User: Fold these one by one.
Assistant:
Number 1:
Amino acid sequence: MRWENLATGSEHSRADAALFGAEAVTTRTFDTPEFRGITFHEIRARSIVNRVPGASRMPFEWTVNPYRGCTHACVYCFARKSHGYLDLDTGLGFDSQIVVKVNAPELVRRRLASPRWQGEHIAMGTNVDCYQRAEGRYRLMPGILAALRDHANPFSLLTKGTLILRDLELLRQAAEVTDVGISVSVGFTDEGLWRTVEPGTPAPERRLEVVRTLAAHGIGCGVLMAPVIPFLSDGPDQLRATVRAVAAAGATSVTPLVLHLRPGAREWFMSWLGRHHPYLVRRYERLYAEGAYAPKWYQRRITRQVHDLAREYRIGPADAGMPRRVRTPGPTGAPVSGPVQLSLL
Ligand code: SF4
């Protein structure tokens, strides 16, 4: 997808015009510690409720993604590749050049009101995190959630962002009138690993606090244990520590997903691995020799270990947190053996 497919609008900055043509609205930077070094490209999108390409292979058909790029900056992020479609850099550019669809709430509301809309399930957080830091400033999600609530439209949401708690009341109201599935992504609890591989995200413990808070307010929340990173977070003690923490937070489910390395993410991750864990490079080249996915035997082993631990710690069945209309596999319960269009949030 190219930039011009995303946007309409007549105003634009010179920088955007040079980069993206006449379609960008404006480019902004904010001189606050939180946003230093980050450029926001504000656009008025043509559409926001989008059908998933090749939906027959996906567990959901419709998505809403108000942002492109993600300041959470996870090294392994699958969505890096999609930044390349906009002629943006998939490495640091993905972390710092953020596209903001400023008209997302009005587009969602208009689409849901259309007589042609059938009230299908909408998945959010499937490409990049809708509760990344930019959301604190742009506040697109309250308008989107209010539209979904007003139309009693079922939806699911996957995030690593603690900012979701800002919208707790809207989520609660939506859950009263429709199916709402929320999942938080916590792949591991190792602080040292978190700081280097997910440098822009809230700490795992803070994400688990989100699960705890949602549960305390009667909103069930699953944990997508993603990614499990071979040789770095897959030891028996590490898996146990993570599942134990997930259980203690009151998650309704835990679903493991082994790291996958598709083009765009693969190069960035392997260069990070070479800098931080050079002794593992050869092992990774062997494990991912067949392509983007770790071998089936490895994925099955991790799944079995996590499911055994989930039983031991009495976490509910793997699809307990799913909305009724989207059962496993789903945005919060992705299969471990197939190509899944998730950014490993
Ligand atoms: S994995 Fe999710 S949270 Fe991390 S950078 Fe990608 S979209 Fe953002």
Number 2:
Amino acid sequence: MAFGVSLPGLAAAALIFALAASSYLYTTRRGKFIVWAGLLDGLALRGDERLLDVGCGRGAVLMLAAKRLPRGQAVGIDLWSSKDQSGNHQEATLRNAKLEGIGERVEVHTADMRKLPFPDRSFEVITSSLAVHNIASARGREAALAEILRVLKPGGTALIADIGRTAAYQRYLSRLPGTTVERRRLGWRFWAGGPQMPTTLVTVRRARTLD
Ligand SMILES: C[S@@+](CC[C@H](N)C(=O)[O-])C[C@H]1O[C@@H](n2cnc3c(N)ncnc32)[C@H](O)[C@@H]1O
């Protein structure tokens, strides 16, 4: 034993680290794509909707959505922070869309999710993946959620997948008029580094008629 650390202790720490790293790599390279494909399929889209992806980054969800919208449009907004996602550029996202043969159905804007550059009730579907938690303050996160609801059409659905704080998202969104909000875990495929970092989905449905 050196410096009070035993060999079995070191081996256990190395194993935990390796498992967390493998889980993170699996989620970012494959798991989240499988989960989001299932979530989008579960919406039974007609194919002509206008969908907004908030904090789209390089376009993981945006591309999956555009492929399901042959007569619609997938719109992404982001601030392109390289701290939150490597190689994060508007041009990279548009290039990915062209390479996938869906360039005409994808539109991206530089915008802060706390102040979305769209009129009220613009989108039938809104998605957001691992993005809202990047805003440091609770007030800022609530501003982003309020904006998501503002630009969602009556009868529309928003799917917000995130790590941590999703109970607070649910509480805040449930207080806004005309919303039905559900929350559930997305399973091991979407662990952001092991079971201690699960991703949770907050689903918000906006009533068709707003009083
Ligand atoms: C972890 S990445 C996730 C990207 C993508 N949604 C995905 O699942 O691959 C988080 C993204 O949120 C963006 N972001 C962070 N704060 C933002 C803000 N205030 N407004 C818009 N985008 C923001 C970052 O630039 C980054 O692209």
